[in-house]
Amino acid sequence: MAEHLQRNHGVVFKSAVALLVCVLCLIIEVPVVEGRIRHYKWELKYEYKSPDCFKKLVITVNGLSPGPTIRAQQGDTIIVEVTNSLGTENTAIHWHGIRQIGTPWYDGTEGVTQCPILPGDTFKYQFVVDRPGTYLYHAHYGMQREAGIYGSIRVALRDGESEPFAYDYDRSIILNDWYHKSTYEHAVGLSAPNSKFAFVGEPQSLLIQGKGRFNCSSLTTPSLDPSVCNASNPECSPYAMTMVPGKTYRLRIASLTALSALSFEIEGHNMTVVEADGHNVEPFVVKNLFLYSGETYSVLVKADQDPSRNYWITTNVVSRNATTPPGLGIFNYYPNHPRRSPPSVPPAGPAWNNVRARLDQSLAIKARQGFIHTPPATSDRVIVLLNTQNTVNGVVRWSVNNVSFNHPHTPYLIALKENLTDTFDQTPPPDGYDFVNYDIYKVQNNTNGTTSNGIYRLKFNTTVDIILQNANTRNPNNSETHPWHLHGHDFWVLGHGEGKFDMFNDPKKYNLVNPIMKNTVPVHLYGWTALRFKADNPGAWAFHCHIESHFYMGMGVVFESGIDKVGKLPSSIMGCGETRGVRP
């Protein structure tokens, strides 16, 4: 009898969960199809690694960095049990590009959707991958991502469905930049008073799928231990991608850099862009693909060159006058040896300061015919976010509308759901700045800069426009590229432009016919980017610059909508701040 009741209670519970998911899916027009369960068990721990020949402590996922690739089909449920074996360090993992429909508590953003995973604890993430495409995962605690916690998520179409483009093989590449200092050293420098402020500086290397090459002879203080930097270490042998001549390859290329904007090139081969952040793109051909941290693309490449040799894969820093050498890999034509160096000099790459070329690529990305999700013709609210550098209370900060973001001790999702109003500032940040008088081309005093953990409250299911406005930094004649990432939603990219956004004339130029939908987009130097999204996913969601140091220094905001529609919170996300007194 007891067994019968237990079984029935399980059926009732599962039915209730299924009903909730169905309702949420109907609200935001997601088809419900039962999928498989993909179960992973991961252990995070520090290990000595030499990804660019220089040995340092790296956070690995099951001994790997990049970590294991998650492969799934649309509609599958992903379960990842994460054990924190870091000893003295908390953690959290964000599933970048996964909207977390019905599971906002598993977005993996410490301070926003969950308390951190404590050392020795195991945390279970469980969510549905509702759309096919190319996505990512990475740490979302402090600046831990740059310590090595990152990897790919590949979601295939359901059985019987096909892509609107043909290819023979599917490959994934993550591009990254790499520092020899620890995240703790970086954090100390960034948090120091203005007179002792130390920026992270340019990275020492660029990695292609976790492999790079640092010039050990360039060390100013050579170590007595030759193992500290060993150019013959097989860990830092160039990444090689083996291709069968005549075949077409889908390359899923992503960037998870801590700082750098990048170009990507395969010597002698054109690339046809067909996907961006999980959405099909009207195909266009590039020689160099520009990527910004948090972006994913799929390109088609045909192995149609001379098969008797190999070719260079190169990635270079753009948008910064960097000292970082190019990242090199080998495009290996079978049956040549994958470590056989190409006979040519690696391509030089595009000029780092050619803003026009990068802007042209941004403007070229449109939704593919037959896969257009038409945006609402108008919005209910417009929020303009001015990106600036400020000195606040004697500390250098990045700010939005002169407000620099601080994480609260109690995660927003829990505070909002449990009505813990004293855990964060109830005054929302401003919707704009002094459009008329602010000169984006000059260094500004920004004396009214402040810090806050206030949030934007959005009316559920309304349409919101976000205008990202770039400006001068604290240094004369300097503006920086910022890739902005939105959690829990995709947005339509309505336009990019140069100079100050014109509230009256620029909206007339918006692309409302075939705009691409993305979750990460750059705002270029001294330029603007216009986005539109529907606040139709209940929860609390971060929107921030995806450059590690910039978000650490306050370049982000949080949106809340439909919190009353969020289901019962799991007890596993609690345990910090005021959540210690919350009964799940």
TrEMBL record:
MF terms in GO: copper ion binding; L-ascorbate oxidase activity
InterPro entries: Cu-oxidase-like_N, Cu-oxidase_2nd, Cu-oxidase_C, Cu-oxidase_fam, Cu_oxidase_CS, Cu_oxidase_Cu_BS, Cupredoxin, CuRO_3_AAO
Parts of the chain that traverse the membrane: 12-33
Domain of life: Eukaryota
Keywords annotated in UniProt: Copper, Disulfide bond, Glycoprotein, Membrane, Metal-binding, Oxidoreductase, Repeat, Secreted, Transmembrane, Transmembrane helix
Location in or out of the cell: Secreted
NCBIfam families found in the cross-reference section: ascorbase
Subunit structure: Dimer.
Protein name according to UniProt: L-ascorbate oxidase
The organism of origin for this protein: Pyrus ussuriensis x Pyrus communis
